[in-house]
Amino acid sequence: MIRHALVGAATLALAGCGNPQKIDPMQQVGPNPVLPAPHEELVAAVGVPKVVGWKPGETPIVPNGFHIEAMATGLANPRRVYPLPNGDILVVETDRQGSEPVDRPKDPIRDFIMSMAHGGGGAKETEGSAGKPQRITLLRDANGDGKPELKTILVDHLNSPFGVVALGGYLYVANTDALVRYPFTPGQTKITAAGQKVLDLPGGLIDHHWTKDLTASPDGSKLYVGVGSNSNSGERGPEAETNRASIWEVDAKTGAFRVFASGLRNPNGLTFYPGSNTLWAVINERDELGPNLVPDYMTSVKDGAFYGWPYSYYGQHVDRRVRPQRPDLVAKAIPPDYALSSHVAALGLTFYTGSSFPAGFRGGAFVGEHGSWNRTAYNGYRIVFIRFAGGRPVGLPHNFVAGFIGPDGKARGRPVGVAVDRTGALIFADDVGNTVWRVTYTGGNSGQPRA
Amino acid sequence: MDGRNPRSTASIGGHPLHPMIIPFPIVCFVGTLVADIFYVSNHVQGWATASNWLLGFGIGFAALAAVTGLTDYMGDERIRRLGVALRHMLANVTAVVLEVVNFVIRLSDQSKIDSIGIILSAVTVVVLVYSGWLGGEMVYRHRVAVLDRPDDPAA
Amino acid sequence: MAETVAHRPVRPISIVRHPIYSLFLPVPVVCFIGALITDLSYLNSGGNLLWVNFSAWLLAAGLVFGVVALIILLIDAIRGSAAWLAFGLLLAAWIVEFINSLVHARDGWTAVAGLGLILSIIGTVLVLVAGWFSRRAVEVVP
């Protein structure tokens, strides 16, 4: 009797925890997103499309008047693209090495599920490297036709690199555990000199959010490094989060650093707004509070500001999971500028500085949304465009590149880093599709961003 | 008339206490070995801390088990006559002594887990397999503390 | 008297006369009780993650060995050498603690506070009662 009642109750409880996702993602964009109450499901919703890659001739979808073509294929998990002033493009092919130490039974189970998210098409081995890719490839497209004449490995045997910056005769590379630099002048196709370590970065055994993005201040005196948190919401303990979940400001000459802004769970896409001294970034917010919490966001990053992680989100919305609580920090947490909706996994950000796209694009932001895992209805898996006016985002995001998930629900590719090349074309890295794509404007319709 | 089977002195309402308690130190000491194996493989502090707690609780529960076991041993001459009982007791005492030494060593120097600590944990588990088997023999072959049944032939 | 003389109890599945289910049944009992203790320690400590991780491991061990105990108890119950009530209670405890392990997988305070602790208490009570109804393992030997 008791047994039957318990089994019945258990079934009901599990069924009742399949929460319908009643919130339209468009209600969660902009400065005032709708934030529902937290809903911790018994089994966290997982929706990860199987990776099948691109068939020959298959491409992502772009709006009328635009044309997309693969610049380079057969890469190994490309995640960052960095155009140099001479037209060369650096492609960072990278992945995390090893897996996180096991703290609790959930860890290996979760890691297995996450590995399916990046499985299938990613990280092929090619000659010259063993194991996961850890290198920067150089593409030379001198005539700007989108078909590189040269594809060569610039530097190899890095350590889970992510952000790169060419500055002052050096190429700075943010490995997961150190900022290093190599003597480098644009025009070089190979780096043979040994790297010089500028600064240690928080790596370690856990290294949960391992990508260290990098950018330089407009005057070239400072570098900014994005350092993601070591956990989802502090469940690895406070010691694991020392100096993490923050953006560091590094003196390019001396390597001295200070924490520029904190409470940013996983900041990437660090970019200064053109013609300003305002740093912008896209941030991946926390998981397992339901399919519609917490929206990822794009924000200007203020010096000395605290943005909430782990204690709260969007200002004073407290995360009940985090103990001991810090009401003092929650009180001074500032909300971000522009929400992108939940679980889109924004990893790339660039501002349009070219002139080959229609005028409506100038000064606006392209955001690479890698795509969701903590929802059964996919979100992200696209590149969106957000118009800026007066240095501030306005309006809704518009889908600019889509079609990464096919009609069969399987992933052909997933966008990561975005950049604007010398010709004003948008280029981006597609990690599970192992491709760098290039989007040009060919005319035809007005090509204005869709309303 | 005492009945054919050796009786347990440490019992409540006819239910012997010793068999109820022994799973606790056994699970704790096996858990200590498991935690040691995890610690030696990844050196995450949490596993060493878990080991210490399991070891400490195991020793405490073992003391409780020892008290009930000794009470039973002293309380019925038929148990004392069993060679199995003496071997069982000596094996258990050995196990507890090993674990107390284990505990003291690692409290003063945690890195000893990698060398002597995990060895002591493993040896103890082996000893417990032996003594546990003997305990089973005492119940299932020699019928210590088993309820007498009317149709059992008299001693 | 007539019943006890006429009815010879069936021997449970054994290795050289040591019943197997009595080897495995204590493991989930100890683990689930242990998980309740570590849950209380977690709440008492104000959120020291060591304790909730400990709980998660104890629950996992209890569930894994609980499956073994359930299978053996099921076979013995069918054969008439163990009580169906013991099997049913252990199954109920297992289901409760399985759901409990999902709750305990949450990242932090909400893994225990509220639903987690309640399920730990219910599971512990059920498994203790299941153990009680299996005391025949040591007290009645055919």
Mind explaining what this structure looks like?
The complex is a heterotrimer of chains A (about 450), B (about 160) and C (about 140). Chain A is mostly beta strands and about 450 residues long. Chain A has one domain (about 45-440): Neuraminidase (6 Propeller). Chain A is built from 3 helices and 29 strands. Chain A has helices spanning about 1-15, 105-115, 325-330, and strands at about 30, 65-70, 80-85, 90-95, 135-140, 150-155, 165, 170-175, 180-185, 195-200, 215, 220-225, 245-250, 255-260, 265-270, 280-285, 295-300, 310-315, 315-320, 340, 345-350, 365-370, 380-385, 390, 390-395, 400, 415-420, 425-430, 435-440. Chain A has a 5-stranded antiparallel β-sheet, with no helix packed on it. Chain A has a 4-stranded antiparallel β-sheet with strand order 2-29-28-27, with no helix packed on it. Chain B has one domain. Chain B has helices spanning about 20, 25-40, 45-75, 75-80, 85-110, 115-140; strands at about 10, 15. In chain B, about 45% of the residues are buried. Chain C has one domain (about 20-140). The interface of A and B includes residues 101, 102, 103 and 205 of A.
Main sheet properties of chain C: 2 strands, antiparallel
Structural class based on helices, strands and sheet pairing of chain C: mainly alpha
Biggest sheet of chain A: strands, sense, closure? 5 strands, antiparallel
**Residues in helices of chain A, as a percent range:** under 10%
Q: Spans of chain C with pLDDT under 50 lasting ≥5 residues?
A: 1-7
Strand order of the largest sheet of chain A: 1-20-17-16-15
Number of domains of chain A: 1
Total number of helices of chain C: 7
pLDDT < 50 runs, ≥5 residues of chain A: 15-20, 120-129
The structural domain count of chain C equals: 1
CATH class of chain A, anyone?
Answer: Mainly Beta
DSSP summary: helix tally of chain A: 3
Helical proportion of chain C? over 70%
CATH architecture of chain A: 6 Propeller
Q: Provide the β-strand percentage band of chain A.
A: 25-35%
Distance between the termini of chain C: 17 Å
Instruction: State the CATH superfamily name of chain A.
Output: TolB, C-terminal domain
**Gap from first CA to last CA of chain A:** 60 Å
